[in-house]
TrEMBL record:
Belongs to the glucose-6-phosphate dehydrogenase family. Pathway: Carbohydrate degradation; pentose phosphate pathway; D-ribulose 5-phosphate from D-glucose 6-phosphate (oxidative stage): step 1/3. The keyword Nucleotidyltransferase does not apply. It catalyses: D-glucose 6-phosphate + NADP(+) = 6-phospho-D-glucono-1,5-lactone + NADPH + H(+). It comes from Papaver nudicaule (Iceland poppy). Residues 201-480 form the Glucose-6-phosphate dehydrogenase C-terminal domain. Transmembrane segments: none annotated. PROSITE patterns: G6P_DEHYDROGENASE. This is Glucose-6-phosphate 1-dehydrogenase. One of its GO terms (biological process) is glucose metabolic process. GO terms for molecular function: glucose-6-phosphate dehydrogenase activity; NADP binding.
């Protein structure tokens, strides 16, 4: 990291996102030596009036849990040292007083650390609901910007949901855009920080295998699937207002689609990558009602945080079609659901059948390339081989790259950890640019409005099932054929 004082300010410090994701990610970075310079300080900011120690107590358990193992004494010691870096300031999200105090505290830290080069770097992480983004950004701009003449920066990190539809998202972008330059705004989509999502460009553009096959001549259909085997668990206040399309599909899955479908960027510079993502999104044609299946799991409305007349989908299968030379005619099936039979995120690229087959092996199914984002990162290719033995018969088998086996002992960084480090380093490659976000909203807004108007309704499905059978039927219509083996 660059030298100079670094202040990381987590706004919404006592909320769930901060406790479960932001602070544990900072702790992981600390443990890897990234935040150990004495010029680094972390501030928590929220409305609740609590002390530094209260905040530390609230965070501590999450830090130790985040390692997924029992809390060894070394871990506890590290956590204690890390927590000493964390100070707390309470204040409102729209008044001067708290932000003046915050600025003073940051400034005191900067001066006391007497940073080597006198520069000041301030990273504001908004772990907050988007309704307060505009006022918080305004307060930061008024009171808390880097004031050093000797260099540094001020950056802000914002989380989804960025708005509820095209109009509200554009309004929000406009308000923030008046205060900060695009190079200061980091719109986080944590799927872009996942190891196998970051691998997608390497896979496609650094291997000779894929390029000639990656098109409508060879690929029959592509699925991008997200499943969770648990429901909304008391998050109804948030979820019911947004639903699965805004929660997962419009952001996480659409970002994955971009990386699967875009053309090769001129270089790895963030601008070049964002340009290609925007282009492919602009080529998506309007979604047809008959290519959408929505679902709601039985019992969703029994959650006390959900209104009992809710029409909100907890499941959706949507077919996107890309009108360009590479993808015309290839359905991209985006599927996401809560309370299903498993927890998994994967990409399935299904190839066309071999023309003029002489082995009569179609019953084994087609070639399929699967990229499992989680759990247990893996890539495998289903292919037809000769059944070992005296007979000339064929079976389906796999070329399998399972990360756990192949990269034993290599720690795969958590998405938030990687992305926060990028914000400190000033690398926007794995973030969402304003126009990307706009096109993503353009794709989904008409459909979201039809759901709100009651013109598209969710079908009930059983908890622990695959979702509505209508979704499987739609998938079959899109051309997907079940393969065997894995
Ligand atoms: C979040 C959604 O963005 O992503 C949640 O709001 C979802 O509803 C979560 O559970 C999934 O993230 P991950 O990394 O566990 O797949």
């Amino acid at each position: 990291l660059e030298s100079g004082s670094l202040s990381i300010i987590v706004l919404g410090a006592s909320g769930d996102l901060a406790k479960k994701k932001t602070f544990p990610a900072l702790f992981n970075l600390y443990q890897q030596g990234f935040l150990q310079s004495n010029e680094v300080h972390i501030f928590g900011y929220a409305r609740t009036k609590i002390s530094d120690d209260d905040l530390r107590d609230r965070i501590r358990g999450h830090l130790l849990q985040s390692k997924g193992s029992s809390s060894s004494s070394g871990q506890s010691e590290d956590a204690a040292k890390f927590l000493q870096l964390v100070k707390y300031i309470s204040g409102t999200y729209d008044g001067d007083e708290g932000f003046r105090l915050l600025d003073k505290a940051i400034h005191e830290h900067e001066v006391s650390k007497n940073s080597q080069d006198g520069s000041s770097r301030r990273l504001f992480y908004l772990a907050l609901p988007p309704s307060v983004y505009p006022s918080v950004c305004k307060m930061i701009k008024l009171f808390c910007m880097n004031k050093s003449d000797l260099g540094g920066w001020t950056r802000i990190v914002v989380e989804k949901p960025f708005g509820k539809d095209l109009k509200s998202a554009e309004a929000l972008s406009g308000q923030i855009g008046e205060l900060f330059g695009e190079e200061q705004i980091y719109r986080i989509d944590h799927y872009l920080g996942k190891e196998l999502v970051q691998n997608l460009m390497v896979l496609r553009f650094a291997n000779r295998f894929f390029y000639p096959l990656w098109n409508r001549d060879n690929i029959d259909n592509i699925q991008i699937v997200f499943r969770e085997d648990f429901g909304i668990e008391g998050r109804g206040g948030y979820f019911d207002e947004y639903g699965i399309i805004r929660d997962v599909i419009q952001n996480h899955l659409i970002q994955v689609l971009c990386l699967i479908a875009m053309e090769k960027p001129v270089s790895l510079s963030p601008e070049h990558i964002h340009d290609e993502k925007v282009k492919v999104l602009q080529s998506v044609v309007p979604i047809k009602d008959e290519e959408v299946v929505l679902g709601q799991y039985e019992g969703y409305k029994d959650d006390t945080t959900v209104p009992n007349d809710s029409n909100t989908p907890t499941f959706a299968t949507v077919i996107l079609r890309i009108h360009n030379e590479r993808w015309e005619g290839v359905p991209f099936v985006l599927k996401a659901g809560k309370s299903l039979n498993s927890t998994k995120a994967e990409i399935r690229v299904q190839f066309k059948e071999v023309p003029g087959d002489i082995f009569k092996c179609k019953k084994h199914g087609r070639n399929e390339f699967v990229i499992r984002l989680q759990p247990s990162e893996a890539m495998y290719m289903k292919l037809t081989v000769k059944q070992p033995g005296l007979e000339m018969s064929t079976i389906q088998s796999e070329l399998d790259l399972s990360y756990q086996q192949r990269y034993q002992g290599v720690k795969i960084p958590k998405a938030y950890e990687r992305l926060i480090l990028d914000t400190i380093r000033g690398d926007q490659q794995h973030f969402v640019r304003r126009d990307e976000l706009k096109v993503a909203w353009e794709i989904f807004t008409p459909m979201l409005h039809r759901i709100e108007d009651g013109k598209l309704k969710p079908i009930l499905y059983k908890q622990g099932s695959r979702g509505p059978v209508e979704a499987d039927e739609l998938l079959a219509k899109a051309g997907y054929t079940q393969t065997h083996g894995y």
